[in-house]
Amino acid sequence: MIEMVEYNIEKTGKTSMGINFLVWVTLSFCIVNVNVTVVEALPFPAPNLDNCLSSEACCTPIPSTAKPTKFKFQTHLPMRIRPAAHLVDDAYIAKYQRAMELMKALPDTDGRSFTNQWKIHCLYCDNHLYFETETHPYPLEIHKSWLFYPWHRLYVYFHERILAKLIDDDTFALPFWNWDNQSPELPQGNVVPKVYAEKRSLYTDPINKTSSIYDETRTPCALSPEGFLDIQNPFSCPGANVSEEVRATNAHVTYVQAVGVGVTPLLFHGWPYRLGDEGGGGNGALEATPHGSVHAWVNAKKMLTFRDSAADPIFFGHHANMDRLWEVY
Ligand code: C2O
């Protein structure tokens, strides 16, 4: 229970940190354009979990005590380095499987359980959680605005920290699935990497024989070791002999979106979203393509839905990569 409270407290800190960052981004944008406008944005308060109106059963346990506190960087922790998902070895896979298995085994009264983890993604979008304001309650929406990157960054961060804590290994870092890597060298980045595709638990005495990171509901293409992501045609499935043209187009699309479409901080990050606004005003440059294409390619019925996408552990590798692309571009 204490852990859950801590988790929820920590989690709420992330929203305001993201907004502060974005205020800074916005300010820089204004200054670069020599068009100095005062941008005022109150940090988003933590949403009140009592106001959860989810019709899709996404409400999570409510901490019994405590006011949210601001996120503090955990400077006592060792530097963690996220590995590329297609390059990790079996020992790493076993460790990650074990951590995820422990997370999945937590009871649903524990805010850190995997079920509660993925529900948080559902909860923070899709009209489930409402802010009270003086005028009208309005729903929180973490997509299609500049909240997209910071919210998902901290979502992945806390997920990773909980996994690390469950295996008592402060060096643990999630893999990033760099589907933007178009190299034909084996192992390839642009297929579902072994860490997610491996069906078996690779460590001794697993609770289950099936890997806790595997998800059998992915599309046949994403389940096939040779399935290849075609970013522009996410419902197609080029096989192992994918043409050079598809690889080149994948690389081109990602690059053009990032540097050709996302030419200003606002175009890159997405539409402004301040306290009191309706959210979801407009995507940043990478959000629909390639980010949305990857969701669609893995599984349109699950990974592409707001409700269930984070219930496939590959979601966290996908978003660790979005986090990386945010840094890269
Ligand atoms: Cu909240 Cu990739 O989505």
Automatic annotation (TrEMBL):
Coiled-coil segments on the chain, per record: none
Domain Tyrosinase copper-binding: 312-323
Pfam families associated with the record: Tyrosinase
Domain of life: Eukaryota
GO molecular function, one term: oxidoreductase activity
Key words, A-Z: Copper, Metal-binding
UniProt cross-references to Gene3D superfamilies, sorted A to Z: Di-copper center containing domain from catechol oxidase
Record PANTHER family: SHKT DOMAIN-CONTAINING PROTEIN (PTHR11474:SF76), TYROSINASE FAMILY MEMBER (PTHR11474)
Name this protein carries in UniProt: Tyrosinase copper-binding domain-containing protein
